[in-house]
Amino acid sequence: MRNTEEKIRIMHKRAAAIKRKEDRFRLRVLGSLSGCLLVCLIVMVQKLGGLQHDVLIGQTTGSSLLDDGTGGYVLAAVIAFIAGVIITAMIYKWKNKAQR
Questions:
Q1: Nearest 5°: phi and psi at 4?
Q2: Taking burial as the number of CB atoms within 10 A of a residue's CB, which of 10, 20, 24, 75 is the most buried?
Q3: Can you say whether the dihedral through the CA atoms of 57, 81, 73, 67 is positive or negative?
């Protein structure tokens, strides 16, 4: 029979293994989402690359971002920023757990 200390040690090992498995799953999901976002951004840039942007020099304000075809670029920038923030937060959290 095992004593209490051995049971607790085994329980902690199992808990750590389950946590590692969950972390790997989250990283796979994040990697897949990052890949999908990359593909979406590449497709958007290719679609919007051929558009003509007739923005006048005197109208280079924030409202010029909402002209004819530039909305897609703004959307792509927002998606890229959000993805970067999420990935940075997850990496920071993962490194903090590794240091503990």
A1: -65, -40
A2: 75
A3: negative
Q: Do 28 and 90 contact (CB within 8 A), yes or no?
A: no
Count of alpha carbons within 13 Å of 97, Cβ hemisphere only?
A: 10
Helix H segments across 1-100?
Answer: 4-49, 71-99
Q: Beta-strand (E) ranges in the chain?
A: none
Please state the pTM of the whole predicted model.
0.46
CA–CA separation, 27 and 97 (whole Å): 14
At 27 the pLDDT is 84
Q: Rounded CA gap, 35 and 18, in Å? A: 26
